[in-house]
Amino acid sequence: MSETTASLLPGQDVLETAETWAREGRLTALATVIETWGSAPRPVGSHLVIDSDGQFEGSVSGGCVEGAVITEALDVIESRVPKILEFGVADETAWRVGLSCGGRIRVYVEPLGGATL
C-alpha cells in the first residue's frame, strides 16, 4: 500500500472519485453503508460510487450485494430520489443477491453530480 493510500480514511478514495466524476458532469450516485448487524462484510461508512453508465468504484459488501445496489443506484440517478436499501439473511432477497455471510446491512443511496434539479 502506498503512503498516500495508507493516509486516506476508509472510503476517501471513493469520495475523491465521486468528486472527480461530478466535476466532469457525470450523473452519479453514492451508496454508503449506514448500519450493519452480525457479520456484515463492510463497516459503516463504506462507499460505492456509481455513474449512469454503470461504472463503479468501491464496495459496500465485498461483492455480496453490489449488483443489486448498482441496479438501485441507476434508478436513483434517473429519479434523483434517494433510497435506503436493506439486505440480510432474514430478508428473502438476501439469498437471491448472495448475502449469505450471516450479516445484514443497510445502505443509503443518494444522487450526486450532474445537472441540478
From TrEMBL:
Pfam families: XdhC_CoxI. Residues 21-88 form the XdhC- CoxI domain. It comes from the Bacteria. PANTHER family: ALDEHYDE OXIDOREDUCTASE MOLYBDENUM COFACTOR ASSEMBLY PROTEIN, MOLYBDENUM COFACTOR INSERTION CHAPERONE PAOD. This is XdhC family protein. It comes from Roseibium aestuarii.
